[in-house]
Amino acid sequence: MQKDIILNGDCVEILKTLPNKSINLIFADPPYFMQTEGDLLRVGGDKFRGVEDEWDKFNNLAHYDEFCKAWLSECKRILKDNGSIWVIGSFQNIFRLGYIMQDLGFWILNDVIWTKPNPVPNFKGTRFCNAHETLLWCAKDKNAKYTFNYKTMKYLNNNKQEKSVWNIGICIGNERLKGDDGKKVHSTQKPESLLEKVVLSSSKEGDLILDPFFGTGTTGVVAKKFGRHFLGIEQNKLYIQEAQKRIDKIEIISNKITRAELEIKPPKVSLKSLIKASFLISNERLYNKAGVYICHLYEGEKVRDESEILSIHKMAAKHLNKSNHNGWNYFYIMRDSKLKSLDSLRYEYQMQINKLKL
Amino acid sequence: MQKDIILNGDCVEILKTLPNKSINLIFADPPYFMQTEGDLLRVGGDKFRGVEDEWDKFNNLAHYDEFCKAWLSECKRILKDNGSIWVIGSFQNIFRLGYIMQDLGFWILNDVIWTKPNPVPNFKGTRFCNAHETLLWCAKDKNAKYTFNYKTMKYLNNNKQEKSVWNIGICIGNERLKGDDGKKVHSTQKPESLLEKVVLSSSKEGDLILDPFFGTGTTGVVAKKFGRHFLGIEQNKLYIQEAQKRIDKIEIISNKITRAELEIKPPKVSLKSLIKASFLISNERLYNKAGVYICHLYEGEKVRDESEILSIHKMAAKHLNKSNHNGWNYFYIMRDSKLKSLDSLRYEYQMQINKLKL
DNA sequence: CATTGATATGAATCCTACG
DNA sequence: ACGTAGGATTCATATCAAT
Predict the structure, then answer these.
(1) CA B102 to chain centre
(2) A45: nearest CB among B61, B128, B322
(3) CATH 3.30.1490.100 fits B5-263, yes or no
């Protein structure tokens, strides 16, 4: 299957040609069906140019629904079982999209709010200024596994759990593509920083990311930058040209964030193997963080205190008066009159194993 | 029709008894159909108590849809033509609600995001922390008029246009109703500050506000406080008791904000009537803000410059090189060697008229 | 009384690899 | 597919006890 290309043509027709379960991640920014009528004039009388493109014209809601069912059904078919899909919209269309996706069996993981510090104001003072758009992030079905680089997102959010509300400026300045006439090339170009969160949170290095409404290629730019592959679908040849120019300029970044190295799980190590490798001594005494003796190793896999034989986790929980706790983080051994955590031992063991393999 | 009472019984059945076009504003906080399964344990093993109420149980999405179609249809019937409706939900249900409301012909004015600075975290690190809920604000149909106290909301937002994203803390502390056991009375009590924005933005003093899922009565509390009437529907008698206790304690506030006095429009006055009342002189010269002569009054309704006869608005626009402009704010006359705006004259004229009426 | 620290809790679609 | 065991996972705020 070809990668890192932009296919020119009708979205649904091209989606139909793609093989089943072949895509890791989909980002879709479909027409919003804005249903605007007449001209909106700024104070002073010049015309506000929002979205007036032919691609945003539909006869009615039913027509729009039908279109969305078609492309979303194909997306579900071509998505890998452990893939996920992002769809962006605004109040005009996001309720159509969400409803249809639920009906198709997609399982909503989050609705993410993109709040804009610099939205287009409501010129006429007739409503609240529409200062956000909504993204739907869905797994293929209720029980499907999916990639979520939780720790990466936490790290990038000042070491706090990332929330469902993202504050990101709209695409302006140098990032915004402009034609020779100085006018914006695409009426709804998305900011790269928005796509960066999408890509970093829900894909891995080398993944294939599909964007069925590629436009001027923000998805391709970010995918390439972070070492993912992309596949674009776009009807408009001018957009494709502009997108390709942008993408060709991008240099690939590879670091612990793009490679999602923060997501690496602690090594699976047994107490027995730690004893065998002389990281622990048979029947060795275990202490808590404060250096208080709690229990001792017992027959390899268990620990024993004054009354019971338990797993390290159950024993830790018992002495913390909780129903469960991670024993690796709770227990310490004494080495050279200093406390040393079991957790650090398993990492050291893992490193030794890795060296032996080389 | 009775007001300021809480009706006990089935939501849809009671809605059916209410007369057509009798309600100014609806605020609906329906069950969300959370679809949780099993227990969610906190670190340490104690159970998280979210929504486990019977009222949030439905067989499936189709069952939930059917329920929502029923109560939303009745809401549309009883809403006045110039009324509006607010509905709150989260990603589990808001796409059902939005889709159904669009199908019923409601016209979405805004989807407002309630972002929470203090949400329940995602304990297991499996998704983005769900830190918001969504409110839909809709008019009865596409062409319906509706109340929006734009200037009031702007005033309350540090004189900036209020946006579609509201940052409000969840309901905790003294505001949160607790039983004798110290546990929350209602699992989803909404903060009063949320309802305050709803009521102040989209209703007038004396309006009748319906809440078909009254719960512990936050809507009633805020409605009474701001001089609106309310009508509650609630199945649970305990909730009704608690709500009534809260409401009885409330004292009514009446000021320029609750009375929406900032919304008063400039008086509709003709140039002719200003001349007739001697606020203007026939053929009087008009100046711009800088005191530069622009044109003079011409036959009562128009103004004339060196080349054209136009309305004051078109003339202002012409001299500003715009396609339109408010002439009342652009033009000044000379009185006692000082400039005086046409705008101030129409207010003075209006005041004189009002005094004569008394 | 002010400050610090421990504990409780809020609309939640909340684990996963292995046998 | 299903059960089981191992073990990974939270932020803001209110309350209350201790200093």
Answers:
(1) 19
(2) B322
(3) no
